[in-house]
Amino acid sequence: MPMDFNKAKFYKSFGSVDQIKNNHLPEFAFIGRSNVGKSSLINALCEQKKLAKTSSNPGKTQLINFFEVEERLFLVDLPGYGYAKVSKSKRELFEGIISDYLVKSSNLFVVFVLVDASIPPQNIDLDFINWCGQFKVPISVVFTKTDKRKAKQIQKNTDDFIRAVSLNWAELPLFFETSSNKKEGLDNLVNWIINSIHNV
Question: Which CATH number describes the domain made up of 5-199?
Fold first, then answer.
């Protein structure tokens, strides 16, 4: 049965995982450093400019935001990690919300960890991915901003990142390459999500 991501709509925001009740739909979560283009990717996937809130000021997402797609799945926009300009107490609160959700959510199908392909591998991304492995959180890696550098540099950055992940992972997660601006790689990601639902 076809699924139209264009029909995605805002469902609800949650301040803690304990508030998420009576949900039986699979959840596909998105997370990454605060300026990685997370909200832009969700908007691009759904072909809506204002579905997820974007801002020139990183750290805009401060709650767990659920978007429903045709009553068949949720796209979940998680607070970004590693944003230095929020207070330490607020940063710890965000990180608590994130870890609680990832470990406790019974409907989490996968968390897409977004990684900026326009820069060399960052330890904060690698540390987060390794944390997910330690707690058996299912992940896939989505490279963003693949249009921001020459193809050769993008390839080097992504190759270096995959090589760094492989040092700690016996079996590598799936990797996707995307550009929200140029709409590249989005179909692959949408099709993978839809096929995952069909195969459950």
Answer: 3.40.50.300
Dist CA 118 CA 144 (whole Å): 8
- Domain regions of the chain by residue span: 5-199
Q: For 118-145, how does the pLDDT look when each residue is reduced to its tens digit (9 = 90+)?
A: 999 999 999 999 999 999 999 999 999 9
Distance, in Å, from the CA atom of 113 to the CA atom of 128, rounded to the nearest integer, reads 9
Confirm if 139 and 126 have CB atoms less than 8 A apart.
Answer: no
Backbone angles phi, psi at 66, to 5 degrees: -100, 135
Which residue in 38, 96, 134, 198 sits closest to 126, CA to CA? 134
Dist CA 41 CA 20 (whole Å): 24
Q: Quick one: pLDDT band at residue 24, thresholds 50, 70, 90?
A: confident
pTM reported for the whole predicted model: 0.91
CB atoms within 10 A of CB 38: 27
Pick from 127, 128, 182, 135: nearest CA to 154? 182
Report which secondary-structure segment, H or E, holds 69. strand 64-69
